[in-house]
Amino acid sequence: MLVDLVKKAALAATISIGFGSAAFAQSGDPIVFGGVLPLTGWGADAGEYNRRGYELWEKQVNAAGGLLDRPVEVKIYDDASDPTTTARLYERLITEDEVDVLLAPWSDDMTMPATTVAEKYGKPMVTGGATLDAIWARGYQHVNGLLPSSYDYVGVPMRFIAEMDGIKTVAILNNELTYTTGFGDAAAKNAEELGLEVVMHETYGADTTDFTALLTKARSANP
Question: Which among 137, 133, 135 is positioned nearest to 118, based on CA atoms?
Fold first, then answer.
């Protein structure tokens, strides 16, 4: 039932973009889209961009007549950049708020638990900021994504590097967050497949501001 609603909503959105406000006359209860974003904490900058995007979409769709002859409403909670809070708030959106469609969070750190909740309740979720290979390795049936995986995402620049004359070894430094660790691991995997030797692969704390020791170590490794 919900899958059919999402398909119809997507079709209606396409039609409304093409034909403007004359396509629909809003009536009835709104179709509620619920999501959780990091509006505070370390992910606040990106979370705010996502919030603006969701709210702009709400405004434009309603100005064009809504979806399925109904207005749309976006409901967003702040997870404070904490994945445990992300999961709890998605449970709330589903079981208490009874939203019709789930909007994805931002970053792999929050998307990992969010997709687990979506799959648990059979609610479709299309992720717009998730790349971590582990998200897709679980074989979930209700989760899709718009970005390439970490492996493919990093693979493009890694292949470019591998084609440069004289490049034989690489050093990889990545933040300890889930999504940046995913990029670091993906870079190491790509390097191995491309015949590049990884002479250093270090993870640093999320609050690191002084990189002197790491860069000194990388210089000694002579990548």
Answer: 135
